[in-house]
Each structure stands twice: as C-alpha cells, then as structure tokens.
Design brief:
The structure holds 2 protein chains of 2 kinds.
Chain A lengths: L3 E4 L2 E4 L6 H7 L23 E4 L2 E4 L10 E3 L3 H17 L14 H9 L22 E3 L9 H9 L5 E4 L6 E4 L26 E3 L12 H4 L21 H4 L1
Parallel strand pairs in A: 1-5
Antiparallel strand pairs in A: 1-2, 3-4, 3-5, 6-9, 7-8
Chain B lengths: L8 E7 L5 H7 L4 H8 E3 L13 E7 L2 E3 H13 E7 L1 H5 L11 H11 L17 E6 L9 E3 L6 H12 L7 H4 L4
Parallel strand pairs in B: 1-2, 1-3, 3-5, 5-7
Antiparallel strand pairs in B: 4-6
The chains are: A alpha+beta, B alpha/beta.
C-alpha cells in the first residue's frame, strides 16, 4: 500500500521521489501547469502550478510529495492567482492568437481559456522582438516566448547541442541562439531534435506545415487542457540528462 | 414574458479599429435575431445608421483604438452605456491592427503611402477631416473601464448568443471553456 496525500479532499498515491504535481498527474488529477514537461526535471519557474498547503503556497511541480499533506488546488483563490499569472504572460509578449499557427496546440492559450481568462487586464507591452527566419526549415518567433526554458533544457540535456539559452535579467531576459551570429541557421539544430517538440507556445515553428491540421481540429480544440492530465504524467527522459558538449 | 409593455433593453454597437467581422458574427445568429429583437432595441449601430448614442443599457464595441476618433466614440459609449462590452480580439487585445505597435508610426505611414513599391507619386493623406492616428493601437480597457470581454476573432454567433441571452436573463455572462476562444 503506497502512501497518499490529499488533493482537494481526494487521496492521491505517490511513489518515493515524486513531486506533488507528478503524483497528481499520474493519478489523472489535473493541476494547471505551464513550464513543466513530463520528460524533464521540474523547474518551478512559471508558478502556474502553485497550490495551497496549510497557510503556505508552493509550486506543486517541485514540492516533494509527503504522506498526509492536505493540499488545495482547484479553489477560486488558487485559480485567481493562476489567472493573474497567465494574464501577465499575455500582456508581456505579443500573443496574437488569430494569426498564430500554434493556435489550438498552444498550452498558454489552452490554459487561459480553461481558467476563464477573458482579457490580459494589464497594459500590453507590445515588445519589439524580430523573428529569426534564417534557418531553411525552422522559424523562431520570439514574440511568443514565455521563458519556460524547455527548449534550453531539451537542446542541452537530450540533443546535447545547447542551441538555446536565456540571456539578461528581469524584464530584459530573453531567449538567445547559441551561435556567434546569433542566427539559428548557424547552429546544428535539426528537425528531429527534442528542442523542436517541447515549445508550449508558438516560438519554435517548423516551416511549411503551419495549417496542415486545420484550426478547430487541434489538440485543445478536441478536449480542454484540464481533461488531458494523464498525458502529462511523468515518463522517462529520452536523453542522458547531461550535455557532453557542456561537460567538455 | 407576456408583458409586452416591458421596456426593451437598449443596445448600441460600433466598430472602431475592427473589420466588422464581429458585427457579421452578430448577424450570424440568424433567425435568433427575431428573438433578440423581442427583447432589445438598437440605438447607435451600423444597423440603424444612428450617428450618436443616447443613454443605453448595453454597448457592444468591436475593434481597438487606432485613431483619435476611435477614442471619442469609445468615450461616448462609456458615458452612455451602463454595461460596456469589448467584443472580439481587437477590442480585447488590440488584435491585428496592434501588430504595428513595435514599429514607428512615421515609418509605417512612409512605407504604406510613399515608398511602397507599387505606388506612383505616393502621398501621406493629410486632409484635416481625417482623424489623427494614435502612436500605438490600444485595447479598450487601456482607455475606459470595460465591464465584460468576449475574446475571439470573431467570437462565434453561438458565443455572442450565449453572452447576450445570459445578460438579458439577468445572469452574469459565462462562456465556459468551449466558447472561450482567442482565435
């Protein structure tokens, strides 16, 4: 009999070493999340998965599961906090869903509509972030970047190429390409790389297939993101977790 | 609702920096328009061609703010409408017109009216009757208080119908995840 904790009044079993979010998703219980990926070590940067444990709040993706915890997640208080986080992400970048080919497959968008975000609420920044179309097969649209660092981690830990990095601090933090020219065309990124598969928004785009699946028939058009918890249950990583290029 | 004496809800609509797609979506409720008209009467709207709105219960505003006239019209709506609704992606986020926001306005005008390759003897329009463009395109909530937001490009007829029927029934409009679409 495995140990359990309580999530919104329900018993959730967990394996040793699992975090609260990992255990919840494995049991088919959804906690909203954004920078988490089932094949990567939880990162704890977006804070969308924040839950209430007693009088404290914690990012459930990095919070170790412990027997007897009593956790509140699907409450108006937590969901209001999550809505504000999502609103700030929408206001900070240039997220024009009607003209984005990731629409319907975008986790930020799916999270927003699932949480009932009707407006960014804040003043939009409308930042100037030129795209990088230098690569023959891949487009980088930095306008949509939410700095989740999944492409950075995938490119380093799985592809062992370290094509991406975050640069700058605070509001000037941004995604950069690891080449002297700063252009994607001058890296060894390939369409088969893990980094091509993990972007939760529409930054890393494979060219010439944008609308092969029409709007209305995409992942989150079929079922809301909250109904897809099990798809995000943790699974073994496809890479070694260590970048030989960086180790040398 | 047999009481035909009951006062109808007065509704005004307008399209600012929009494409009228949201108005087309409103017309797309099809025969439900007849049901709607049992409960509402229209004030200022492109459908009645009334030029200025008087006191209204509901104002539906499509489009963001790209010029000075848009701001005047929006303020007229806010001053006259008890409930002001931002309808569609442009009203809610600035939308497609806001994709000029990272560019310098003078460069935009130069490119569009003077140096664009297909133009011959281009000229930036300067008729004094033309409203002056704003430096940046803004969504409505950056200028006035907005009571409700309906995202979508455009919001579907079913979305608008759900919103309006909730409102007319005196309920807080809730779209749910199915009808809350940003594209």
């Amino acid at each position: 009999m495995s140990e359990t904790f309580q999530l919104d009044g329900e018993d959730i079993p967990f394996a040793p070493g699992q975090t609260v979010l990992q255990a919840a998703l494995s049991a088919g219980h959804y906690i909203p999340h954004l920078c988490y990926h089932p094949e990567f070590k939880p990162h704890g940067s977006c804070k969308v998965c924040t839950v209430k444990i007693g009088n404290r709040t914690a990012a459930s993706c990095t919070m170790p599961a412990q027997a007897g915890l009593e956790i509140e997640s699907n409450t108006e208080e937590m969901n209001a906090l999550r809505r504000t986080l999502v609103q700030m992400l929408f206001a900070e970048g240039n997220h024009f869903c009607p003209s984005c080919e990731k629409s319907g497959n975008c986790e930020l968008q799916a999270l927003g509509s699932d949480l009932g975000v009707m407006t960014a609420g804040f003043r939009h920044f409308y930042p100037n972030r030129p795209v990088d179309a230098s690569h023959p097969d891949i487009l980088l649209d930095f306008n949509r970047c939410i700095l989740c660092e999944l492409c950075v981690r995938a490119s380093c830990e799985v592809d062992e190429k370290c094509v991406f990095a975050l640069s700058g601090r605070g509001i000037t933090k941004h995604l950069v390409v690891n080449a002297t020219s700063g252009k994607l065309a001058d890296t060894d990124i390939a369409l088969t790389d893990k980094a091509m598969q993990v972007c939760p928004v529409g930054v890393i785009i494979k060219k010439r297939v944008g609308f092969a699946v029409p709007i209305g028939e995409r992942r989150y058009d079929q079922r809301p993101i909250s109904a897809q918890a099990l798809d995000d249950a943790p699974r073994p990583p496809s890479g070694s977790g260590v970048c030989q290029a960086c180790e040398e | 609702m047999a009481n035909t004496e009951q006062k109808k809800i007065r509704v005004a609509t307008t399209s600012l920096a929009g494409c009228f797609g949201c108005h087309m979506s409103l017309l797309d409720i099809d025969e439900r328009l007849f049901t709607l008209l049992e409960h509402v009467e229209f004030d200022r709207t492109p459908l009645t061609d009334i030029k200025h709105c008087g006191p209204c219960d509901v104002g539906l505003v499509e489009g963001g703010l790209c010029n000075a006239e848009n701001v005047h019209v929006l303020r007229e709506f806010r001053n006259n409408c008890k409930i002001l609704v931002a309808v569609g992606a442009c009203a809610v986020t600035g939308g497609l017109p806001a994709q000029r926001n990272h560019l310098d306005l003078a460069d935009c005008l130069q490119e569009v009216y003077v140096t664009e390759i297909s133009l011959h003897n281009g000229l930036i329009p300067n008729d004094p009757e033309l409203p002056l463009p704003l430096d940046k395109v803004h969504p409505l909530h950056e200028v006035v208080k907005v009571d409700y937001f309906i995202p979508g490009c455009p919001p579907s007829a079913d979305t608008l119908w759900k919103f309006l029927t909730d409102l007319l029934a005196g309920r807080t409009p809730t779209l749910g995840v199915e009808l809350t679409r940003y594209d």
